[in-house]
Amino acid sequence: MATDQARSEADSADSYEEFESRVERISNVGNAAGILRWDQEVVMPDDGTPARAQQLSTLSSISHELLTADETGALLEELEDADLDEAQAAVVREIRRQYDRETSVPQELVEELSETTANAHPKWKQAKENDDFETFAPTLEKLVELKREYAEHIDPDADPYEVLFAEYEPYLDLETAERVLERLRDELVPLIDAIDESDADLTTDAFSGSFDDDDQEALARDVLDSLGYDWSRGRLDTAPHPFSSGTQFDARVTTRFDEEDLLGSITSVIHEFGHANYTLGLPDEAYGTPLGEARDLSVHESQSRLWENHVGRSRAFWEHFLPIARERFPELEGVTPEEAYEAANQVYDDNLIRVEADELTYHLHIVIRFEVERDLIRGDLAVEDVPEVWNDKYEEYLGVRPETDAEGCLQDIHWSHGSFGYFPTYSLGSVLAAQLYAAAEDDLGDLSADVSEGDFEALNGWLRENVHQHGKRYTTPDLIERATGEAFTADYFLEYVDEKYGELYDL
Asked: Which of 1, 7, 450, 472 sits at 20 to 30 Å (Cα–Cα) from 150?
């Protein structure tokens, strides 16, 4: 009997080894596609799109074939009841979920989606540049139809938007997302109204002026140096829509520069650093498996928002970083850390652009996108009506109305990627950032002194230990509870903004 057990354990070990090898091949194909997408956004010539679309479609097809192959299914069945350790069981759980979803979707639909999204990017870009929604509308309509079809194959009885949301956040359900968004909307609107009526005289022009792009890039590198970015595993480039992508061995950052918006480039770089820092914190030895991958988008966004808002928009950060900024831009010599702090946290009452939004109104931008794309996918909104509905919602929620589609429904790149269900993760991430930062300070004490001295080692060490190193070992709710000691909650975010903005605006 002992011999039989030993033989069974050996068979399980062999099966898992074969399974992990297959998982690593799938991961490497996906990572190669990621480099091609980075190249398309950053350095590819404009006319390279037709070939790039085919290249990405081919890699997507290869990845899909490897994942959905009979061999993968057989290995998953063998390992279902095998005696696996916690890490192995987590890998099997994550791949099983992917396998079940992708085996539901026909290969030809996967290829059509990949090619359509690759071709959609230049059409969206052209439409935005020309302020011409009608140019992009047929592509958007096709993407909506393909995504509905995709969702129906996965679960024909489910709300299609819920199925798509689970692509980005599989373990926090849509009901949770809706509850959080509704609570933010209900509690932030009165706070924003109170701020609008406040007589507080904040400094808003601390960073006014014209700032050379090359000098801004040098300062962006100073920001990354200060925060501890590992240049041996990363790089900085520019892109129309800033993003970060890569692996723990190569996590790249992009940003953009506006000569009249120095503060925007600083906060953008800090935001993307947060993403890259998480990626670089994933365990090297787990590369190629879910244990070496980030735990979905809400957790990823929590890292960027934590660094951007809780660090980069703090008084302590400007006490540390303003002297560095003055070295690049002597015209900031007369600006005090308090003035920089106030400028970094002013609440705008007339902003139309999500990526330029302040910390509070930002979430109403997300609510609008969430409601529009949810109705599109559910068939409750026609593509041709998107601009008008979008503009109506901006007027209702934010009190401003876009005059052009370029500053309205064409401003974001996400729908051209087919990323329906993505937007809620931005607000979920901001909420989680506050919960994680509060937990870090519970363990480490007040971090203000460290931040003012440019010492981010303790905070980063806490994040590495409690979030980064785990990859996808735990589900999102489990990871949050392990890191913070309690379930996911919006309490900390709302307490944080009430205290911060109440003090800033004398509420």
From this structure: 472
Judgement on whether residues 136 and 190 belong to the same structural domain of the protein: no
Looking at the domain assignment, is residue 165 inside a domain?
A: no
Same domain for 182 and 149: no
Domain check: are 61 and 105 in the same one?
yes
- Are residues 182 and 110 part of one domain? no
Statement to judge: residues 131 and 224 lie in one domain: no
Q: How many angstroms separate the CA atoms of 270 and 325, rounded?
A: 14
Same-domain check for residues 53 and 83? yes
Q: What is the CATH number of the domain that holds 185?
A: 1.10.1370.30
Residue 260 annotated among the catalytic residues of the structure: no
Q: Is residue 429 a part of any domain in this protein?
A: yes
Residue 324 and residue 204: Cα distance in Å, rounded? 20
Angle between helix axes 49-68 and 107-130 (nearest 10 degrees) is 150
pTM score, two decimals? 0.90
Which H or E run contains 236?
strand 236-238
Domain that holds residue 89: 2-156
Residue 414 lies in a domain: no
Active-site residue among 41, 272, 301, 319?
272
Split into its structural domains, the chain has a count of 2
Q: How far apart are CA 253 and CA 293, in angstroms?
A: 17
- Per-residue pLDDT tens listing for the chain (507 residues): 555 555 455 667 889 999 999 999 999 999 999 999 999 999 999 899 999 989 998 998 899 899 999 999 999 999 998 999 999 999 999 999 999 998 999 888 988 998 899 899 899 999 999 999 999 999 999 999 999 999 999 999 999 999 999 999 999 999 998 999 999 989 988 898 899 899 999 999 999 999 999 999 999 999 999 999 999 999 999 998 899 999 999 999 999 999 999 999 999 999 999 999 999 999 999 999 999 999 999 999 999 999 999 999 999 999 999 999 999 999 999 999 999 999 999 998 888 999 889 999 999 999 999 999 999 999 999 999 999 999 999 998 888 999 999 999 999 999 999 999 999 999 999 999 999 999 999 999 999 999 999 999 999 999 999 999 999 999 999 999 999 999 999 999 999 999 999 999 999
CA dist 247 and 224 (Å) reads 18
In sequence order, what are the beta bridge partners of 255?
A: 238
**DSSP 3-state assignment of 29?**
helix
Query: Which is nearest to 358 in space by CA: 370, 346, 341, 342?
Result: 346
Distances in Å between the alpha carbon of 265 and those of 31, 296, 374? 27, 26, 31
Is residue 199 located within the same domain as residue 103? no
Copy the structure tokens of residue 215.
């000098």
Cα–Cα dist 349/447, whole Å: 31
